[in-house]
Design a protein that fits this description.
By secondary structure, the protein is an alpha/beta fold. The chain has a single domain (4-211), classed as TIM Barrel (Alpha-Beta Barrel). The protein is 45% helix and 17% strand. It has an eight-stranded parallel beta barrel, surrounded by seven helices. Helix 1 (18-31) runs parallel beside helix 2, helix 3 (70-82) runs parallel beside helix 5 and helix 5 (102-116) runs parallel beside helix 6. The longest helix is centred in the middle third of the chain and has 15 residues, at 102-116.
């Protein structure tokens, strides 16, 4: 299986330096990954390094907690697009999900979608913090919002992507939107299992090891 085009080659560590981003982009271009995913301050650099390679530049919104005000997430999204980002990965307000404030989460997502101007937006729902019932409900909200992807995790809290969660998302969403498995994917075997369960993208910092 050719895994390259499933992979968002990711570096979101707070200590990441411009040199680290250059290395990330060089690897992404060499291996023809789908995208890199970097923090907002590195979008300009990644865009310049990947011009003409076919590798997309994704960045994160409301990361990693999702607890920003909707207006702040929308502003982040607007700035990311202005700086050349091709895709946005946005964290929901997980506390709102725990309280069942689904209308607020829907509004949150929709404000970012407006500023994305049609670019793909991946909604990070932090599965490790949700009950099964909450996972099912958030799938319905993401689908209703018009976002292009649902994404499992930030990788910053315990409980990353699991085959069971991907299969659950697939059973609810079918082929209506993409499913991005992210958090703790380190081996080729894990990557293949996620894809078999229904993942259409993989967020990982181990992309080179997985395809090698």
């Amino acid at each position: 299986m050719d895994l390259n085009q499933y992979i968002d080659h990711t570096l979101l560590k707070p200590e990441a330096t411009p040199q680290d981003i250059r290395c990330l982009c060089r690897e992404a271009a060499e291996h023809k990954f789908a995208a890199v995913c970097v923090n907002p301050c590195y979008v300009d650099l990644a865009v310049s390094l990947l011009a003409g390679t076919g590798v997309k530049v994704a960045t994160v919104i409301g990361f990693p907690l999702g607890a920003n005000l909707s207006i702040v997430k929308a502003f982040e999204a607007k700035q990311a697009i202005l700086h050349g980002a091709d895709e946005l990965d946005m964290v929901i307000n997980v506390g709102a999900a725990k309280l069942g404030l689904w209308d607020g989460i829907l509004y949150d997502i929709q404000q970012v979608l407006v500023e994305a101007q049609g670019r793909p937006v991946k909604i990070i729902v932090e599965t490790g913090l949700l009950t099964e019932e909450e996972k099912e409900r958030v799938c319905q909200i993401v689908l209703k919002s018009g976002a292009q992807y649902i994404k499992t995790s930030t990788g910053f809290v315990p409980g990353g992507a699991t085959v069971a969660d991907i299969a659950l998302f697939k059973s609810i969403l079918g082929d209506k939107i993409g499913i991005k498995a992210s958090g703790g994917i380190r081996t080729r075997e894990e990557a293949i299992a996620m894809i078999a369960a229904g993942a259409t993208r993989l967020g990982t910092s181990k992309g080179v090891a997985i395809v090698s």
